[in-house]
Design brief:
Length: 271
């Protein structure tokens, strides 16, 4: 009598366990193929919403530009650089007034000086607090300025990669301070950083500098990602392969066409 019920019970239990395993395996496969949104992905969505809403809801876009010669527009024969071109594009895209409040960028500026200005300069504080869009570039001079100084009587190909990127880690630390202070001064503004490119890509001995630039951009992005109101616009891919089309005669700064490409990329990012 016991055997009469024993085997059906065993069969039922076996079937139940098999079905449970199949269902569980199905959920595992689902998670592998269609993973749930990670915290980082959620933050990215939130970040995009914050940025787009801030500028779209503003009655006027007020731009402040800070940093080095790339933001100043050195190399552009028209004098517009990417900043004025971006302002012109925003007027068309958003169909509202766009005002360039200040362009405080300075040729040769490094992270040390920009950090100091952001910490102590009342003029910087006043300008940054007035803006709802802040654009900046920094870091290129930390990595390249000392090398360019040494190149006064040398060919570019005579330099080595270590000379080009000697201050890398210290510059990254200073960039972290810059991002923190910008967010402290104006946490509601959209803040856009222009990523670095390798101006020496066409020189075989210095092509590997692109790897350093990629690491810089990666480390900078890890800092920027902590702040929902900040984003980084990459530029390295715009220049590599077309260096001589987009660089000015100094073999470092963009020309008119190069700045136009940067401005277009920025416009896509903030729109």
């Amino acid at each position: 009598m016991k055997n009469r019920y024993l085997w059906p019970s065993i069969a039922f239990c076996s079937l139940f366990v098999t079905v449970t395993l199949i269902v569980g395996f199905g959920f595992v496969i689902k998670d592998m193929l269609m993973p749930a949104a990670t915290k980082g992905q959620i933050n990215e969505i939130r970040k995009e919403v914050v940025e787009n809403t801030a500028l779209k809801q503003a009655s006027e876009i007020k731009i402040v530009a800070i940093g080095d010669s790339l933001t100043k527009g050195t190399g552009d024969s028209s004098g517009k650089g990417y900043v004025q071109r971006l302002a012109d594009g925003l007027k068309v895209q958003f169909k509202k007034p766009v005002k360039l409040v200040n362009n405080l960028a300075v040729n040769g500026m490094q992270t040390t000086e920009l950090r100091e200005r952001l910490l102590t300069d009342p003029g910087y504080h006043y300008a940054i607090k007035r803006a709802n869009l802040i654009v900046f570039s920094i870091g290129g001079n930390d990595l390249f300025l000392s090398a360019r100084t040494k190149l006064a009587n040398r060919k570019l190909s005579a330099m080595n990669l270590d000379e080009l990127t000697v201050d890398f880690e210290a510059a990254i630390d200073r960039f972290n301070d810059i991002a923190k202070q910008l967010n402290k001064l104006n946490p509601s503004a959209t803040i856009v950083y222009m990523g670095l490119y390798n101006p020496f890509y066409d020189i075989p001995e210095l092509r590997d500098a692109s790897l350093k630039m990629q690491k810089w951009n990666k480390d900078v992005y890890e800092t920027i990602f902590q702040y929902p109101n900040m984003l980084m616009v990459p530029t390295f891919d715009l220049f590599e392969g077309r260096i001589m089309d987009y660089l000015s005669s100094d073999h470092f700064h963009p020309n008119d066409f190069g700045y136009e490409r940067i401005a277009s990329r920025m416009l896509e990012s903030v729109n």
